Amino acid sequence: MGNESHSIHDFDYSLICEYFASLERQGPGSPEVTVRALSFIEGLTTESRIVDLGCGTGGQTRVLAGHAPGSVTGLDLFPDFIRIFNANSQAAGLSERVRGIVGSMDALPFAEEELDLIWSEGAIYNIGFERGIREWRRFLRPGGYLAVSEASWFTESRPDEIDRFWNEAYPGIDTIANKVGQLQQAGYVPVAIFILPENCWTDHFYKPQVPVQEKFLQQHADNPAAAGLVAEQQREARLYDRYKTYYGYAFYIARKL
Ligand code: SAM
Q: DSSP letter string over 26-73?
């Protein structure tokens, strides 16, 4: 967002940040799922270096840090999220081990083979799964782990409406089998894959948005961008309810060869 004059997009970003900043999570997931994904990862110690890319305000980062030894760096593009991340980490008494930094997942500020674990929940889509797993690999030490959750098709084909929605929103969505193939080709050993339960979308993501939407619309009455943002989130929730047999998030846990 730098020094350039404010464009409509900057304004949209600040609205999006404001909307999501008040939520514990900015994407589907749950503490149980974070702990389950972590259970497949071996060999972490107090010396381990863990990063959480696209961490948002860090709900899942704090769960991760509560169940894994080592230091955890959360990285997100949006300074507002990182401010909240660091305040929450301090309030949870985790600031010695858990810190948030502003940065972009396509230009990581880490050294080659520095990391023991790269974590990312519902965020790799920002640069695309295939690109992300390839570009991030060099920062992992040999034997280091990657754990990412990612939108995935459950079936080979699906109704047009949901196919169109996802191909516009994120053309990188693919079947679980194809994503496992991409991991293999990028030089990882797939260790575990599981589908996130429905409550990660309903109880932990869409339901907490309902009171936020009401307040947000009151605060931004007469702002069509705010009304549009809320309408889009509501549409997503309706589509999920209708088409959840065809897609969801899967957690992919893999080891660098
Ligand atoms: N991991 C969090 C969670 O599960 O609640 C947040 C997921 S949210 C759907 C996606 C996150 O990616 C947002 O916090 C957004 O700011 C961040 N993001 C978008 N583009 C990014 C980039 N290029 N580099 C780092 N983070 C980015």
A: SSS--HHHHHHHHTT-----TT-EEEEET-TT-HHHHHHHHHS-SEEE
Which residue's CA is the closest to the ligand 1 atom numbered 13?
56
User: What pTM, to 2 d.p., does this model score?
Assistant: 0.95
Pocket test for ligand 1, best of 12, 33, 34, 55 (most atoms within 8 A of CB): 55
Minimum CA distance residue for ligand 1 atom 21: 77
| Predicted ipTM of the assembly | 0.99
Q: Report the atom number in ligand 1 closest to the C-alpha of 149.
A: 4
For ligand 1, the distance from its centroid to the CA atom of residue 126, given in whole angstroms, is: 7
Does 229 map to a domain? no
pLDDT tens string 182-213:
999 999 999 999 999 999 999 999 999 999 99
Q: Give me the domain span that covers residue 129.
A: 24-197+245-256
210 assigned to some structural domain: no
